[in-house]
Amino acid sequence: MPLAAAAHPSLTIPVAVVIALPLVWYWRRLGREDVPSSRRVIRRCSIALMLAALLGLVSGLSLLDPHTHQQGWVIAWTAVAFLMMLIIAAALVDAINNLNVHRQEKRQAMTNAATELIVAIRKARNADASGASQQDDASAEGEAEDEDADS
User: Fold this and answer.
1) b/e map 124-147, b = 16+ CB within 10 Å
2) What are the residue ranges spanned by the domains of the chain?
3) Do residues 61 and 6 lie in contact, with contact meaning Cβ atoms separated by under 8 Å?
4) Torsion angle of alpha carbons 9, 12, 15, 19, nearest 10°?
5) Helix axes 9-29, 37-58, angle to 10 degrees
6) How far is 92 from 89, CA to CA, in rounded Å?
7) Helix, strand, coil proportions of the chain in percent (round to 5)?
8) Are 65 and 3 in contact (CB under 8 A)?
9) Nearest 5°: phi and psi at 16?
């Protein structure tokens, strides 16, 4: 084990596990049917990037000595920096996707509301028309009785 590492593995590995457990829990939770598939794909990709960055962080902090394993240490920290940029990019893609999902849900809700309104208006018109025809029938019967009385 390297002596010049920034942190002892007995510290960094448990912290990494504590961070990884909620990520794995959220990965599984994204498998629900009510989660849009686009959101599931983007967020699972983000989680995978975070777990990979977590491995690089543990390696760069505890497992690789910058004095004896210079190349591995540089690769680990370069990978962590690159993964952090990818995580930020995935967060931006997720934000744009959320706007699109919200817009689609709003459009669908408005379409459903308009359909329900049309159905309600048609029912009201049919009820008014049938009520008016019943009144016309009653007045026609009254007129017929008046004509019979006159003759």
Assistant:
1) eeeeeeeeeeeeeeeeeeeeeeee
2) 9-150
3) yes
4) -120
5) 170
6) 5
7) 85, 0, 15
8) yes
9) -65, -40
Q: Which tokens go with 28?
A: 């599984």
How far apart are alpha carbons 143 and 151 in whole angstroms? 12
Residue 129: per-residue pLDDT: 79
Q: What token pair was written down for 128?
A: 């008014």
pLDDT tens by residue, 42-95: 999 999 999 999 999 999 999 888 888 899 999 999 999 999 999 999 999 999
Would you state the structure tokens that stand for residue 53, as one six-digit string?
């960055």
Token pair for 78: 């370069």
User: How many CA atoms within 13 Å lie on the side-chain side of 113?
Assistant: 6
Residue found under tokens 């962590």? 80
Distance CA 81, CA 58 (A): 13
Q: Return left, alpha or beta for 89; rule: phi > 0 is left, psi -120 to 50 is alpha, else beta.
A: alpha
CA distance 12 to 59: 9
